[in-house]
From TrEMBL:
<dbReference type="InterPro" id="IPR007809">
    <property type="entry name" value="FlgN-like"/>
</dbReference>
<protein>
    <submittedName>
        <fullName>FlgN protein</fullName>
    </submittedName>
</protein>
<keyword id="KW-1005">Bacterial flagellum biogenesis</keyword>
<dbReference type="GO" id="GO:0044780">
    <property type="term" value="P:bacterial-type flagellum assembly"/>
</dbReference>
<keyword id="KW-0175">Coiled coil</keyword>
<feature type="coiled-coil region">
    <location>
        <begin position="13"/>
        <end position="65"/>
    </location>
</feature>
<dbReference type="InterPro" id="IPR036679">
    <property type="entry name" value="FlgN-like_sf"/>
</dbReference>
<dbReference type="Pfam" id="PF05130">
    <property type="entry name" value="FlgN"/>
</dbReference>
Amino acid sequence: MIEKLIYVFEKEKEALKILLNLLEQQHEYLTKEDVFALDAIVKKIENANKDVASLEMERRSITGEQSIREIVKNFGNENLDLLYREIQHLLHELKTQKDSNDILIRQGLGFTTQILDFINPSGKTPKTYNSYGKVKR
């Protein structure tokens, strides 16, 4: 069981590194405002998330409902403990990067909304002309 768990942890660590790399690329594209690259990387991030989720399901099939922290503590295997700590560190980095990207996305959407409100202040209906050539409000 411990060998399977170590194998899954190693695979999960690699999958998390790939996901972190993709989120860093997304951050770069957000700062450069490269819309087409952002659109392309979304699919890659979704696939990486699916890979991480499948590895997590595999880990849960091995460990059952038992907490990973308890399992690592009970086995006392140094390699397993090291992998667990590295995965925890990667998860923290992923959360930080994701939050940073979310903030940049919200800022961009807020700016776009302000520009659209400036162009069309009423925001509800576009201005049209009536039969007399006057602007209809």
